[in-house]
Amino acid sequence: MIRADAVSKAYRDATALDGVCLDLPAGGLTALVGPNGAGKSTLLGVIGRLTRADFGLVEVGGMNVVAARSRDLARRLAVLRQDNHLATRLTVAQLVELGRFPHCGGRLGPADRAAIERAVAATGVGPLAHRFLDELSGGQRQRAHIAMLFAQDAEYVLLDEPLAALDLRHATELMALLRAACDQDGKTVVVVVHDVNYASAWADRIVALKDGRVVATGPPAELVQSDFLSALYGTPVRVVDTGGWPLAVYHR
Amino acid sequence: MAFAVDQATHDGLARARAGQRAIDRRAWLVTAVAGAVALAFAAAILLYDNPAAPGSAAQATVTKLRATTLAAIALVAAAQGVATAVFHTVCGNRVITPSIMGFDALHSLVQTATVFFFGAAALGAGGVWRSVGQCAGMALFAVALYGWLLGRPGLTVRVALLVGLVLGLAFRAAATLMQRLLNPSDFDLVTARLFGNMSNADTRFLPLGAALAAGALALVWSRRRHLDLAALGSATARGLGLNHRREVMLALLAVSGLIAVATTLVGPMTFFGFLAASLTYRLAPGARHARLLPAIAAVAAAVLLAAYFTLRHVFYAGGLISVVIEFVGGLFFLAHLLKGPTRGNTRLIRQSRGQPAIRREQAGD
Hints:
Chain A has helices at residues 40-47, 70-76, 92-98, 101-104, 110-123, 138-152, 168-185, 196-202, 220-223, 226-233, and strands spanning 2-11, 14-24, 28-33, 55-60, 63-64, 77-80, 156-160, 188-192, 205-210, 213-218, 238-241, 246-249. Chain A is of the alpha/beta class.
């Protein structure tokens, strides 16, 4: 499980997280939603020990993320940030192989090769495997990074706005993939999404943040409601029932 | 994960493996060819145009002198090339070099200050120990600067580089001030010291310098796999379990040691490391550090030995090697900067978060 206890973080004078307490059970897909500047990415960064909190405690699977050895943690916790720009030239296959680093220290064994195959198959980047990352489009690069994340094969997977560079088809495919990772492999996935409808359609639970605080936690059916979303985002949101899941309409 | 491995994945990965073999082969080929060129020029420098009679003691003396110069050049080349590449990797940038961090300026300052405070005689006296002192001072500077800077939370490498740039300017200004206050003959001495001079390398320092450089190279080599990971940038590398700060510190320690040895031997060379590294990135794209670093060392040695031989025996301008190398390297650097959005400067343009990769995407899709 993932536990955050009284986590606060400020960038100079701006408060990004203000005493966040969060308890996420192991397993399942959790979506972090909220307006810009709500602290979603910061919270994800703190849980993934990429950002250091000013106060508070974070535990992932019983490990204190600040105190644990980074490489031990990396076997159980994988995190993908938005900004994944590279200065060096790397092929997709090389990138995916680096996802195995926490397990093999750079020397690939048979188990690592098998994990790489599965990750490449799951993300469908096989046809791109031999290409250099800087020759790919933004969306293709994003998928290569997700393949790397899957190769890491951690129980806990955190993604910061993974849909940002993806088209409709690949965004939906990625959400289905994350769903399958939870259902078939028992992974715990936390994902920051901008489009609340992806959270509504795929997530087990939604964590809504605003001004550095968790304002609500619950299943999509509870939180994807017109007045709640209107207040959260500060703009009129209608919610229509599509039969399967509630759909937020806010485009005009 | 429980996903079936389909044919496309198999084919794709097989193709990637073949591609990887080609990348590795190419890197070896570059290393081998550059190594052969370097050896050929080394032999030429040793044997060509020896004025003494064959078999005489004089010939042996000349050859021995040349061998020392040769060793210094090869050492400096490998040190500059490898240091620049490692620096590029840990800074996530293929433009900025250790020289831009103020190493050259510090070298000038140390040399000028030696004369300023202890007089011209100090340049001759002390010998090895003065060199060791300078070398240690320069290495300490980098490690202290970064130890201090990187200990501060929320500091980006880029800000650190800016600080390095400002410090470099400050050192240069202080050196210039002292040079103005020197008497003309001391000033002449300092100026002569400040221009790199291959033929007149500080050879007393050579055995110790070689040992130091070997230690630094061994350190880099032992971290080669970690450097592959560090190249992914701080966030991704840390996500994959790399102690990024420690890696950067170790790399900087090695880099400062290598640059300090090279600078102490033949003086500052701002663009040579950049030239050798960029050339190798082009010749062997996608090579991992295990293959890249030997290739860079070989290419750097080949370039510097070829330049030395050509300038000395074809153009009779042995003293100008540094000048010519810097001129060519500088042109290369400018061309690289002006080529448009290269990897090095796109990163700077795309700094602001929240505007990811729009430019690239449009170009790519």
